[in-house]
Amino acid sequence: MGGEGIDSAKWITSVGIDLGTSTTKCVFSRLKIERRNGLSMLPQFHITDRILSYESPMHQTPFRNETEIDISALEIIISGEYQKAELRPSDVDTGAVIITGETAVKLNADSIVHGLAKQAGAFVVAEAGGDLEAILAGKGSGAEARSILTQGMVVNIDIGGGTANAAFFERGSCKRTLNFHIGGRLIMLDSAGTITKVYPAVQDWLVNEGFHLNKGGVTSMDELRKITHCWSEMLFSTLMNPLDSESCPLIYGERNGALTSSENIAEVWISGGVGRLMEQASPRTMEEAAGYGDIGPLLAEALKKAGSAYPFRLQVPPGAQRATVIGAGVHTTVLSGSTVFVDPHLLPLHNIPVVKLKWPAGDLSRLAGIQPAVEAVFAEGIRKFGKLGKPPFAIVLPAVPYYSYPVIREIAAAIVDVSTASMQPENPEMFLVIICEDDAAKAMGNCIHVLSAGKLRCICLDQISVEHGDYIDIGKPVAEECIPVAIKTLVFSALRELRDNEREQC
Amino acid sequence: MTLQHTEELEQLKRSTPARIGTGRAGSRPTTRELLKLRCDHAAAVDTVYGRVSQALLDELGLFSVESSAGDKEIYLRRPDLGRVLPESSIQNIRLRCIHEPKVQVVISDGLSANAIEHNLRDVYPALLDSLQVHGLTCGTPFFVQNGRVGCMNAIGDILQPEVIVLFIGERPGLLTSHSMSAYLCYKPRSGMTDSNRMVVSNIHQGGTPPVEAGAHLGTLIARMLKQKISGVELLL
């Protein structure tokens, strides 16, 4: 007999759907979950294998008009792919729908992510945002894994139709992201060189730089080469000197991570549709250049040329065009530590916002200041997210040097006190989600249960790193106490505000 | 390792308490490392001869009995005597303890009194919380001086608990002398062997976190009671 069942791996199914400016695609993957450590240790489960089981073809993203995505056409595409993959939405345990690039600012983006998430399976994340996209693409392309092996950073730039999203990886972790309004489809044209569309994101820049491209006007290969060369130079020089991003006109979104004056960048990987085009021969005529009705091939050519002057190695990863969707489908799920406190009936949970407690200064073991710190984090959560959700928010307890039992008890007592007094009168059905960064969730959950005589229900997870402003989804247990969690980190700030407002209203 | 690799080396060193990247002086360890090694070795030896303080036993309300080993020198040479109890201890246990408890908690110094001193205050109340969450009651806890893991069989014969938990100090190593194990057994009686037992080991501040270990033990015990078995046949 296998005793503690160490060989019994579990598999879960994950979906990734990427709704981009020009193309929509989806992948299905299988994640293998295994107990990896010795039998005399606390159980610890890991995702030990990720197998891509189905990749959809590229679909043109359906638009009803210039600003609205055609939801019913989209639903037909997605349900068709589920059928081809021989999966029902109920078969899918986790995953992500992400709306990338320019598409994310389309009018009905928010209703789409919600609609799709419902259609695609019970536990599917739905988010959008340049920074998240940058990180997912870097994971999906393999740049993150590569950075463990290199000295110096590996930067993955995912360049699609509307945006270029750069993620800087150093020894397997993302140090920062930068997002540019640079993409293959921002200027559209026909085979005669007649401009059919210029996206507003680049209009001002073009005028300032003296390029006069208007719908209906005719452009030349020369002019387009100058534009794409400018973009490529801007992209690479900003990578080398991120401080320049302050003044770079085509950068958008939040600047995440510390900026330094120079970086040791070993390799730059270009993924996305434009990355794929870099593997093709340079266009010789306008007809060839405009083969996709846009400037993608010329941008690819310009990147190749400009990149050769820099000290890093420039390369295109295999499967470049699917990097983001692979990242979304394969890499969004993490596992909580395996000694946790959960009531499976309360799971799954979706879109729980996170507030992070701030420990008092000094030695925690003296127990001073714990109660006020807990009061402060509840006050902040209530102010931002109200008292009414089930749960209204999750509280993160940052890592501490050591949890003695008196410290655990003091924190648990404060949590019971504050939540009972401030929230339960209005929300008797409420329960709490507590996330410890250290391995302490089961002790914390037990103590809360004991101190509240079982009246305060809670879910305590641990050993996942989440930040202020993140949203999390918590899945049903896979094995006994193995809980998959999807962290929607660094979401598009506009969408985040929208979501916050929604919560305040309800 | 060359100097350019310093950052990587630091990262590796942070990932383990083992003695790596300590440098050398010619073909020998550096003086600093050699002294550290001897210091750690001395601490390990001291630990074996240490005693659990009466203050800790009083604080947690534990009475104390001895194994048949008598003193430490005999205890070290005769592991078999650490597994059995003299008549006086048997009488004491019989008199002072609740009989046939659901869960019996026993603490022993084993080879590291230090381990008990450092971890019991955190592990024990976390275990009690966990038992309460699972609706399980506890017998009368006590301390066994100079005990070995096998003494759980002797105690099982006397008190007939459904499950026993023995916290015992582990043989000290050069990394820490504070490491404790928790051994568990369903219906411990004479003749039970290691394959009938479960263990959660390496419990100390830098290893298995004590509070979480205590919490996990409650879950393990609940599972043992449900399946009416422990050791290699327990399904997790």
TrEMBL record, chain A:
InterPro entries: ATPase_NBD, EutA. Pfam families: EutA. It comes from the Bacteria. This is Ethanolamine utilization protein. It comes from Paenibacillus monticola.
From TrEMBL, chain B:
One of its GO terms (molecular function) is ethanolamine ammonia-lyase activity. One of its GO terms (cellular component) is ethanolamine degradation polyhedral organelle. Adenosylcob(III)alamin binds at residues 149, 170. Its cofactor is adenosylcob(III)alamin. Its main location: other. Keywords: Bacterial microcompartment, Cobalamin, Cobalt, Lyase. The keyword Lyase applies. Pathway: Amine and polyamine degradation; ethanolamine degradation. It is found in: Bacterial microcompartment. Residues 1-13 have a biased composition (Basic and acidic residues). Residues 1-29 are annotated as: Disordered. GO terms for biological process: amino acid metabolic process; ethanolamine catabolic process. Its EC number is 4.3.1.7. It catalyses: ethanolamine = acetaldehyde + NH4(+). The keyword Ubl conjugation does not apply. Binds between the large and small subunits. Belongs to the EutC family. Catalyzes the deamination of various vicinal amino-alcohols to oxo compounds. Allows this organism to utilize ethanolamine as the sole source of nitrogen and carbon in the presence of external vitamin B12. The basic unit is a heterodimer which dimerizes to form tetramers. The heterotetramers trimerize; 6 large subunits form a core ring with 6 small subunits projecting outwards. This is Ethanolamine ammonia-lyase small subunit. The gene is eutC.
